[in-house]
Write a sequence for this structure.
């Protein structure tokens, strides 16, 4: 199980439109990807143009190979790309521990 | 409900010791804070010295006032502070949406 965390900055004034587009892209496109197990979208309090998108993948390769190099990536990026103020910063994480 | 995301970089070679210390600090100190509802710790795949600590708080002030300005912050920072390679980057987030 791998957690993708994407740190996204959107263009000024585009937050509401981005929230709608991102959730639409998640539901209609990314959720079809193999190994895509769930997602969460949060909006910054101190930085309202900042969003953290978190996606749980079964394996790292489900994201980096299957999704990024597969046929869903074009439609996905077409929906959310126009809102980006800069390239999102994306890294992957492994679970260390969590509260019960 | 507010999500705190702390982006933490630890000193080289200190990852295993930090994982133990952070979970101990969460369980024995931070979990006592009012409004502290749960936590998750993840370790970077591309950046193995990077940890993302996520804590769910009932309100923003439970973290920024109650915890940071209260009696638990000293013991908390004493346990985890020695591992930091730099000051953690901490911001707060509101839920936009999540998968069902």
């Amino acid at each position: 199980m791998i957690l993708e965390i994407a740190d996204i900055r959107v263009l000024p004034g585009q937050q509401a439109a981005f929230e709608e587009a991102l959730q639409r892209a998640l539901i209609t496109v990314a959720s079809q990807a193999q190994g895509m197990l769930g997602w969460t979208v949060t909006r910054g309090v101190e930085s309202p143009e900042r969003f953290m998108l978190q996606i749980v993948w079964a394996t790292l390769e489900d994201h980096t190979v299957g999704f990024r190099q597969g046929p869903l990536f074009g439609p996905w990026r077409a929906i959310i790309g126009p809102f980006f103020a800069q390239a999102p910063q994306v890294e992957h994480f492994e679970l260390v521990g969590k509260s019960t």
